[in-house]
Amino acid sequence: MSIQQWFEQRYQQFKEAQKLVRTSAEQASFNIFALSSINVEKENFHSDIISVLLNPNGLHKGSSTFLHVFIDYLCKHYQFNINKANYEHATVHREFSDIASRIDICIEGKGHAIIIENKMNNAPDAEMQIERYYELITKRNLEVDAIIYLTLDGIKQAPTPTIPAAASILKSIGAYTDQSNDLVQGWLNQCLEHTNEFNTKSFINEYTKLVKALNINAHERRVIQDFLKDVGKVEILPVLIQLSDNEKKAINTYRIQFIASQIQNYLPFTKGNQYPPYPTWFFEGYTFNAIRFQLSVTTESLTSVKVDLFGMANNQEKNRTTTHELLNNIKMLSAFQEGSNKNGYEKIFQTTHNLLATDAEVIQFINNLLQALRGVTA
Fold this sequence. Notes:
6-stranded antiparallel beta sheet, 11 strands
């Protein structure tokens, strides 16, 4: 069998899998929450439901069961060491706050606490948000056992706190990623196994279907991931280029999200997010010599990935010269060339055959760059 024949066979399997994804999306969207007029994409909506299930005094009639299942989930999948005895008579706070900070969900036990920051609607990160939450709780003489940064798809990573103790207990978790460690499979499905209450089961089941419906892209990413594992590691890029424009766009979107998910610590930048609808991920919040900088990575096509570092002042020349100085300080100037936007410098990775190898090279390069930049700010 020729490479062309093999690819056409694998491509048909890819198309069939995509059809199954669309069928699954239709099934998941048939739930009471998705069909109602309520704005289920609001963070408050999800925080209300999650806090009700975690609350030992909630209407679910399960006492501390769901809270204990949640703690077991964190310990099993995210290597926390949390003593459930400290949360035997816990209080679950919604919008626990002071003048400066408002925590979405705070589980307060006996001398201990768990913080949940809900980003399921991709709300922007506030400056020093995690640090402020941590200090708000510790000032009450509570030991923070875990800080959970909850997103819908698990792609966006939490900003790394400048407080080492907070950074050591911070985990980014996806509500639904089609993986065993997401909130749906790791916690909500387990809650269903721990209740016989019909109304409670129905409530959890409908909410689970809603979360899946909101992130049906998780299934599509899995299909693309499996496809790229097969075809992206062999030398058939000329064949891949035969894909439709929509298929190329979907693959490049998956690639940029995968690259971003592998940047676990993006300090000295403080915020990171995708720039929709383009396959671009950007990091911002870093200042050098009074110039705010942005780092972006773009899967421009199946054949190239571009990394940009540039200043964001109104003076184009000052942006470029300050970027030059910064890269020279960290001894990485030779790795870049002047950027096409004239505000900084760029690095372009060309792919001739192997997509996965190129993406791995990009990830390594960005992590090395961030580590070098952290040395400047130390």
